[in-house]
Structure formats: structure tokens, C-alpha cells
Amino acid sequence: MNTDAFAPLTGPIGFYPVVPDAAWVQRLLGWGVRTIQLRIKAADHTPAEIEREVRAAVEAGRAVPGAQVFINDHWQLALAAGAYGVHLGQEDLSMAEADLNALRKAGVRLGLSTHTPAELARAHAVQPSYLAIGPVYPTLLKVMPYEPVGLERLKEWALRAVPYSVVAIGGISLARLPGVIACGVDGVAVVSAVTQAADPEQATRQALALFDAPA
Questions:
Q1: How far apart are CA 71 and CA 52, in angstroms?
Q2: Cα separation, 208 vs 75, whole angstroms
């Protein structure tokens, strides 16, 4: 394995929504969010639709200074579109599905999911741009074979992740956001806290304000 590190992030992570389409990416960029992940499920779309969404999300990010738009899983499409970043799971590493060298050489930033201390150690060997730790809380959005990390272990594991940036994810609502931020993470990824909010723009601006508030 190439021991070279992936390119570092160009800005802080902060509030990190995970969204299902490029329209959400554009909307959130307009509301002031600068780190966003497109997570589009292959089972729900044709290959042509997925490619179109990936390209649209990448182009939306390019149009906004400081934007850090990550593409979940679809690394070939992300690479072809010139994406800023790609987010992968541990299974992508174990199955040797992703061409990490190609991504690294292209300057694509890499985010890696981790759920256990062993996965954290494994991710260190890849030298990604950031590490995601979760699920912090139980989540109903997907079946997780891992028990929730909780705040105490999140704080401990975040220290183990140094020198990499750390993103907390999993079951994090706006009400839980301050407690998660207090664990020393660099970013907090949310899904339903924005996309299922009664007023997504208001929820987004409230979350951004929490990251801007003095510690």
C-alpha cells in the first residue's frame, strides 16, 4: 500500500449534512454550509441518474469558494467528475473495491468510516483526510451492526484519531449537537436533522451558529 497521505482538507469541517441529491447540495451551499456529503443509493437510481447527480454535486461545490463536497461510495464517478472528496466505508477497503492510489494521486480528499478501535487503527494506515466515528447514538436510518459509541467513547476515540480530523455521525439531532461538539470533534455529520426538519433552512442556520459560538 502506498504510504503517502491523502490531501488535507482545505477548511474546517463543522456542520456536515449528508444528503440524497445534488439539489440539496446546492440548497445547503446557499445557506452557508461548506462541507456536504452526497449519499445517493444505487438501488433507488439508474446508473445514468447517479452519474448526473454526482456531476451536479461536484459542479455545485466548485462554484462556491471554500466548499468541500464529498461523494459517498461512487468513487469512480467522483474521480471522473473531479470531485473534491470521497467518503468510503471500511468494507470498501477490505474488499479492495476502491483504487486508493488513483484517488490519492488525483488529489481527492478521503473520508473513512470507523466504528471500533480496530477500525480506527486500520484507517490510520490509509492516512485519510478525515475519520468518521459512529454511530454516536442509535439511528433508524440504516441497520447498524455496531453498538452506539456514546459521548464518553467518542471523546476517547477522537483523541486516538489524532492527527486526523474527526467527524461524529449517527443519530445526532440539533438538540444533541452541543454535547457532541464538546467531545472535541472537528465536524458533526447529520442526515435527518436537516432533510427531515420542518424548516430545513432554519435548522441549518441554528446548527451553523452552534459551530460559530465561542467555546
A1: 13
A2: 28
Count other C-beta atoms under 10 Å from residue 117's C-beta. 12
Domains and CATH numbers, the chain: 14-210 (3.20.20.70)
Alpha helices for the chain (secondary structure H): 22-30, 47-62, 75-81, 90-94, 100-105, 117-126, 150-160, 177-181, 192-195, 200-212
User: Distances in Å between the alpha carbon of 14 and those of 23, 46, 141?
Assistant: 21, 32, 22
Residues 195/20, Cβ–Cβ less than 8 Å: yes
DSSP string, 120-145: HHHHHHH--SEEEE--SS--SSS--S
Tell me phi and psi for residue 185, to 5 degrees. Answer: -80, 160
pLDDT in tens, 83-136: 999 999 988 876 557 899 999 999 999 999 999 999 999 999 999 999 999 999
Q: Which three cell numbers stand for residue 139?
A: 439511528
**Can you state the angle between helices 22-30 and 47-62, rounded to 10 degrees?**
20
Average pLDDT, integer, range 186-214: 94
Rounded Cα–Cα distance for residues 155 and 65 (Å):
31
Find the mean pLDDT for residues 157-168: 94
The verdict on pTM exceeding 0.90 is yes
**Beta-carbon contacts of residue 151 (< 8 Å; ≥ 6 apart):** 136, 179, 180, 182, 183
